[in-house]
Amino acid sequence: MYKMLIVMFFASVLLSCTQKEENKSYPFYIGTYTDGESQGIYHTILHQDGSFDSLQLAAKSSNPSFLSFAHGKKVLVAVNELDINGVGMVESYQINKNKLILMDSVSSGGAHPCHININADGDIAVANYTGGNVGLTRVAKDGQLSSLLDVAQHSGQSLTERQTKPHAHSAWFTSEGQELIAVDLGVDQLIFYRVENDQLVRTDSLCVEAGAGPRHLAFHPTQSILYSVNELNSTISVISKEDQNKWELVNSISTLPDDFKGKSFCADIHISPDGRFLYASNRGHNSLVVYRIDDSGKKVLPIAYELVKGEWPRNFSLTSDGEFLIVANQHSNNLVSFKRDKSTGLLSYLNEVKADKPVCILFE
């Protein structure tokens, strides 16, 4: 009888865990462009079958194109990708269930801010695309923003018609939190800064292939390696921290199949939580390329091209457990869910939902 009770107990625990896994859902926010039907930042939930709840407006905002959390996901920060007398804005929100309460708004330091990243101290780096610079501000735990602390202006140009001046496209704090990497499409460079006394102190730079147009980064979870997705020549650059603790370009690989002849432009890049697979989006080919990464982290091999069931995949995101992936198709106004095979890295289409001009997906 005692043994039977033990068996029944463990069986009930196993059933409970299974049921919880089956009922697991993934809430997330959506940043958008608001020159159509969208009114700002939206919220919805992805379910295990790939279906979505109906989208709910979380906050009205103008062109909240990129979103990020701060202070343990108690605060949400968004950019307003605008040009108002030469600058855009940064907005902060307190999170109240699925609603966002506007707390503060400050200048981004340049026109058309298109990306933000926030470290554990609440320092905010803002990439201003048209301004060609990176702004630094800070958010407190109550959601209040500091005034603009510093602006680091880029200079130079490169090969193409979109590279006659700097275009900062993203900015990323490293895991240590005080080193910042700015990615500038206009000058084909990664520019390195250190945050010191509320200032951005430039420490180094790295050139990628001329005409590449670097846009976003993905960081390997265990190796000192990062991957730059290059918008203009549709490549991935593998970059490793080598001798003397300097970042060096290792190699580059195409994001497109060999037989593709049309125009296409990369947008986003993400790596699986285990560091074994890399994904990048192709706008034009309208696909996600799937790469397998070798143990060194330096070799990436394309293994599949998954069509995204829409047009112009601007942003995509993996759930934190790596089970699912959602693509934001900007021109076809839809979000598409995929199931991800953790062992092979391959994607299987599940479902979609209408969303007007989605630009950024931020899982809670």
Structural overview:
There is one protein chain. The chain has 364 residues and is mainly beta. The protein has a domain at 61-207: Methylamine Dehydrogenase, Chain H. It has one helix at residues 2-22; strands at residues 26-32, 40-46, 56-60, 67-70, 75-84, 87-96, 99-107, 113-118, 123-128, 133-138, 150-153, 168-173, 179-184, 189-196, 199-207, 214-219, 225-230, 235-241, 247-254, 265-271, 277-283, 287-293, 300-307, 313-318, 324-329, 334-340, 347-354, 358-363. The protein has a four-stranded antiparallel sheet, with no helix packed on it. A hairpin with a 3-residue loop joins strand 21 (277-283) and strand 22. The N and C termini lie far apart (45 Å). The relative contact order is 0.11. The model is unreliable at 15-19 (pLDDT under 50).
Q: Number of helical segments? A: 1
Q: Can you tell me the CATH topology of the domain at 61-207?
A: Methylamine Dehydrogenase, Chain H
SSE string, helix = H, strand = E?
A: HEEEEEEEEEEEEEEEEEEEEEEEEEEEE
Strand composition percent: over 45%
- Based on the structure given, which CATH architecture of the domain at 61-207 is correct? 7 Propeller
**Secondary-structure content class:** mainly beta
What is the number of E strands?
28
Question: Could you describe the largest sheet, including whether it forms a barrel?
Answer: 4 strands, antiparallel
Low-confidence stretches: 15-19
The CATH superfamily of the domain at 61-207 is known as YVTN repeat-like/Quinoprotein amine dehydrogenase
- The strand order across the widest sheet is 3-2-1-28
Helix content: under 10%
C-alpha Rg (nearest Å): 21 Å
CATH class of the domain at 61-207: Mainly Beta
Structural shape: globular
* Global mean pLDDT: 94
Ends apart, CA distance between termini: 45 Å
